[in-house]
Amino acid sequence: MARVTGIGGVFLRSADPKRLTEWYVTNLGIELTAWGGVNFEWKDEVPEGTGSTAWTAFAADSTYFGETTQQAMINYRVDDLHTLLDKLESAGVWIDPKRDDGDFGKFAWIKDCDGNRVELWQPM
Question: What is the CATH topology of the domain spanning 17-123?
């Protein structure tokens, strides 16, 4: 059976794509490839063997994404949530005061320079 086997990419629309890309490089430490994008290799999963990508549809009136005008939200796996949040706070990045430390790991939410709500997740 022909089927989807995973998430092949994440694409963000922006009035200033260069600025948005630089924001992610500076604040979230992503490493650009020669073609100007990013390849997140599953070999980087921590701890090894725990990698997976979630896909979920939410109700149109869900507040999980923050503003109702935002139609999608990206969840980024991180290796040290609290240290990253300290770095982001020092850089003046908006950070939601809400935190979720639960069965699936630690979660926090920020906004990028375009105002997109972004979820940060440190797996258990």
Answer: 2,3-Dihydroxybiphenyl 1,2-Dioxygenase; domain 1 (3.10.180)
